[in-house]
Structure formats: C-alpha cells, structure tokens
Fold this sequence. Notes:
82% of the residues lie in helices and 0% in strands. By secondary structure, the protein is mainly alpha-helical.
Amino acid sequence: xxxxxxxxxxxxxxxxxxxxxxxxxxxxxxxxxxxxxxxxxxxxxxxxxxxxxxxxxxxxxxxxxxxxxxxxxxxxxxxxxxxxxxxxxxxxxxxxxxxxxxxxxx
Length: 106
C-alpha cells in the first residue's frame, strides 16, 4: 500500500509542477489552485509512504517520478526539446530508481 501511495505522490508532483508552469508565476487563479492542491496531496501521500519505506528510497522515487513526469509533460504540453541526450538522462533516472527499489529490499 505504501508503494501505491508513493507512486500517487509522484504523479501529484507532476500535476503541481505542470500547474506551476501554467500559473504564470501564480498570476492565474485556476492553475495556482491546482498547483497548491497538488503539492499538498503529493506531500501528504509521500508522508504516508514514508511511514514504512526508507527515507532515501521514498524521496528518490518520489523525485524521480516527478522528474520523468515533468520531462514528459514538458515535451507533450510545452514543446520542450526531445533530444537524445535528454532521453538518455531520463533512462538513467529510471535506472537509478530501479536500483533504489532493489537495494531497499535487501
């Protein structure tokens, strides 16, 4: 259950990061409300996951999901670069997340 909470926390991290971009420096109400709500939900779920998961693993997975999700959202919604080097960086992030999960089970 804590891994599900952690995954959802990562998804809500992508939500709030994307909403911050759309809020234009918190000058647009709708995206600003989504950003703050997404942040609070994300932190709440992360704290739930950390009740039983190691700090280093939980935080790394949370930020990794956020980084990969924000990378994908940037490409899909904001026309950001989809270069080979950026994809390699994303692959390395996912590899690190996988190793953290495996290492946390030892």
